[in-house]
């Protein structure tokens, strides 16, 4: 998949520019090649392991089947796996696959905690195994060689004997972790430690101010391969696979303390950002901090989607601007531990900017004096649906003005919108929920088709959410 800006455009794109009265000067061009159905998705769970989380961890365990049933290879709502015992079974299973490919994802799931202070199993971004959190015997404090992690991370896959049981054990991370929850930092460290030798060989070539170099460069050499496994020929098999979709699910009842870190972003970068936006009263230090962390996940060489379950500061019934131009109702405030607004915004903004989901950990009904625990069954089901839809469309690199979208197949044929008269037999549709283009009928791309999608950005990024976007 290639994303680029072109100076020379096909006729459809030129027509787009000529006919548009949009005041943008930037045409976005996303190029995709349809090879085969790609069902790979890597899911990293970042679970708060502070003292207040016992009840929430139990709720995630109890409702895990609602999550995985949205995309696992199951035959019915009971979670029964499709059988392949004879030809008839195989035929039915194949038909189910063709009709519902999004429910047959080749997933990997791992679990880390929000604790980056304590070393060992599950902490500091180390994907945990089935041993106790923080232990060195199975978690390994040293992972010097590719795939050299003693004991190895426990990774849940469709081939696991009991995926739900394995996950239930992993998510029980205890409640003795650090009170300063740093979910984004833990996720970032986990991604660094899941990189192959080629990444580490070229890390020094990045600019010193690059957030990827700042965070990954701080990982001790003996811990660089903690989230990899050895292949048969001795190479590193990273948890985060090339070309796989990546989803990070953070579950915490407090905001992210990364928002108040003295060291990240580096003070010199934070000062430079504040000075750059000194004349903009809507752009503050929190925006600079979110911008810096966004740059890390944008620069880690893979698309990352966040699904965050956390506290809220918004009042129920208020229209909260969202980064796709819409408004959402976030039923709060439900902020038991009085996390600062910026700490909560870290999770909300990352979910918004990556086309993911933010789910309140508690809800407040209109007029209610107290907050009630969120419906975790529906919350996890919605996140599961988000994941199942990752393979159901071509995700655009920016939020488009839907009226400006033009789709060209194999550099010559413009594909009609399915909502027009020309698209009655098949065409494209834009899905704002996951910022993706999907196809229907005769317009569904064939093997090796090339798709060029042109569009204008939906809005000036300084008007994106009612305040400047943090980049």
General description of the model:
- It contains 13 helices and 19 strands.
- With 471 residues, the chain is of the alpha+beta class.
- The protein has two domains: 3-34 and 393-404 and 427-471, no CATH class; 40-388, von Willebrand factor, type A domain (Rossmann fold).
- It has a five-stranded antiparallel β-sheet with strand order 1-2-19-15-16, with helices on one face. It has a five-stranded parallel β-sheet with strand order 4-3-7-8-11, with helices on both faces.
- Helix 2 packs antiparallel against helix 6.
- The longest helix has 15 residues, at 285-299.
Write the layout of secondary structure elements.
Blueprint: E1 2-4, H1 11-19, E2 28-34, E3 40-47, H2 54-62, H3 64-68, H4 87-99, E4 106-113, H5 136-139, H6 163-171, H7 183-192, H8 197-202, H9 211-216, E5 228-230, E6 236-238, E7 245-251, H10 267-276, H11 285-299, E8 304-310, E9 320-321, E10 327-328, H12 341-353, E11 357-360, E12 362-363, E13 372-373, H13 376-388, E14 394-395, E15 406-409, E16 413-415, E17 428-431, E18 436-439, E19 449-455
Parallel strand pairs: 3-4, 3-7, 7-8, 8-11
Antiparallel strand pairs: 1-2, 2-19, 5-6, 9-10, 12-13, 14-18, 15-16, 15-19, 17-18
Helix pairs in contact: 2-6
Beta fraction: 15-25%
How do the strands line up in the largest sheet? 1-2-19-15-16
The helicity comes to: 25-40%
Sheet having the most strands: 5 strands, antiparallel
> How many domains, in number, for the residues?
2
Which value, in Å, is the CA radius of gyration? 23 Å
Low-confidence stretches: 1-9, 17-25, 75-79, 460-471
- The level 1 CATH classification of the largest domain is Alpha Beta
Please give the count of helices: 13
Chain-averaged pLDDT: 79
Assigned CATH superfamily of the largest domain: von Willebrand factor, type A domain
Enter the CATH topology name of the largest domain.
Rossmann fold
| Name given to the CATH architecture of the largest domain | 3-Layer(aba) Sandwich
Strand tally: 19
Q: Kindly, what is the distance between the CA atoms of the first and last residues, rounded to a whole number of angstroms?
A: 24 Å
> Given the helix and strand composition, which structural class is it?
alpha+beta
Overall outline: globular
